[in-house]
C-alpha cells in the first residue's frame, strides 16, 4: 500500500463520545501481546483522548496510512499484522485491554508499517500527538517503554523465522501459557482462550496444515490435550523445559 493521507477510520476522526475513565485489569504480558499498563496509567492515557466503538473486523488503521494519533484499547481485542508484498499477511501481536497501538507512527509522522484490525467488538480511545506531548513525564516515559517493548516483539519474530516448525509451536505455546494459562493443582494448565488453528499459525508464520500437524504430534507425545478448540497443557514443567531449550 502506498503512503498517503489516512482514508480509513482515522480520516473520519474519533467519535465525540466521552473519554473512557477505566480499563479492565491488565492481562499478563506475552511477546505475542502488546504489553498492557497498570490501571492508573491506562486511565490517564484514556483521559487524553476520545473514545469510539468498533465492530468486529473493522480497521483501527491500515498499513501505509499517516496519522498524528495512536490508540488505547479499552475493551475488546485488536490484531496487529503485516501485509506482505506477495499479498499474504503475518499476524505479529494482539492488543488486549490496556494496550496501546500505533505510537511510533504517531510520533515520527511516517507511514504506518503495520495494520490493526479488531477481532471482536471493541472500545478504543484515539489520542493525538499534541495531547501526548502535553502530558506529564510519566506518560511520555510509558509510551517510550511501550515502543521499546514492541522492538523486542519484532526481534522475537525475526528469531522465529529461523526456527523449525516444531520449535515455533513450542515457543508459541509457552508464551500463551504465560499469558492465558489457568494452572490447576497439578501440572495441568488450560488456556483461558480458544484460539483457532489458523490464528495460531499466523502468529508464527506457519500454514494451518503445519500447525495442525505439530499440535497433533504434541498430543501424541502427551504434552498437549485438545478438546475442540480448547488447549490443555498436560505437563507444564516439560513445556517450560522445551521453551528454555529453544531459547538457550
From TrEMBL:
Q: Which InterPro entries match?
A: cNMP-bd_dom (IPR000595), cNMP-bd_dom_sf (IPR018490), Env_Response_Regulators (IPR050397), HTH_CRP (IPR012318), RmlC-like_jellyroll (IPR014710), WH-like_DNA-bd_sf (IPR036388), WH_DNA-bd_sf (IPR036390)
HTH crp-type domain ranges (all copies): 163-237
Which keywords are on file for this protein?
A: DNA-binding, Transcription, Transcription regulation
Q: Where are the stretches annotated Disordered?
A: 1-24
Q: Name one Pfam family in it.
A: HTH_Crp_2
Statement: the UniProt record of this protein carries the keyword Transmembrane: no
Q: Does the keyword Thylakoid apply?
A: no
* Residue ranges the record marks as coiled coil: none
Q: Which residues form the Cyclic nucleotide-binding domain?
A: 52-132
Q: Which Gene3D superfamilies match?
A: Jelly Rolls, Winged helix-like DNA-binding domain superfamily/Winged helix DNA-binding domain
Among PANTHER family, the record links this protein to: CRP FAMILY TRANSCRIPTIONAL REGULATORY PROTEIN (PTHR24567), DNA-BINDING TRANSCRIPTIONAL DUAL REGULATOR CRP (PTHR24567:SF68)
Mind telling me what this protein is named? Crp/Fnr family transcriptional regulator
Protein source organism? Pseudonocardia nematodicida
